[in-house]
Specification:
Elements (H helix, E strand, L loop, with lengths): L11 H7 L21 H35 L4 H33 L14 H6 L7 H8 L1
């Protein structure tokens, strides 16, 4: 499967979060942002789907990195190949960090702290969690941290 460059807003897991469809007790599935307070099972399903997507990306990028390294090693003077190898490594590290973020969110869910700001303890809005369920800060603390 080819590896494609994905921006922060175009990852398949974000699309999943925006239009997650989980049937509960025979009810018609609704997008996550339209539900009031998704159950822990729905959050777990969403996080697990994101984990699977990130793991798939990591696997693809790891193979691409090793292929690029072998190609660059065979052509020591090829600067374009070395650039591709560095770019692939950068993307691999970013995806690995994203995978770790999802794993930490799953741990918070298991510990009963999912949806609580790690800074101030306030509740993180479900709409924010629906877009980025691995987020760890409420909007106020996130803004304060960014400035």
């Amino acid at each position: 499967m080819p590896v494609t460059r994905r921006g922060a807003g175009s990852q398949p897991a974000l699309a999943l979060a925006a239009a997650v469809a989980v049937a509960e007790e025979g009810k018609a599935a609704m997008p996550l942002h339209m539900t009031e307070a998704p159950s822990l099972a729905r959050w777990r399903a969403l996080l697990e789907a994101r984990w699977q997507a990130r793991l798939q990306q990591l696997t693809e990028l790891s193979v691409a990195y090793h292929d690029a390294a072998a190609y660059a090693g065979a052509r020591p003077g090829d600067h374009a190949a070395a650039r591709r190898q560095r770019e692939t490594l950068r993307r691999t590290v970013a995806v690995r960090r994203g995978l770790a973020d999802v794993e930490e969110a799953l741990a918070r869910l298991a510990a009963g702290r999912f949806g609580q700001c790690e800074q101030c303890g306030a509740a993180i809005p479900a709409s924010r969690l629906g877009l980025t369920p691995e987020t760890r800060y409420c909007p106020a603390c996130d803004v304060a941290w960014m400035s």
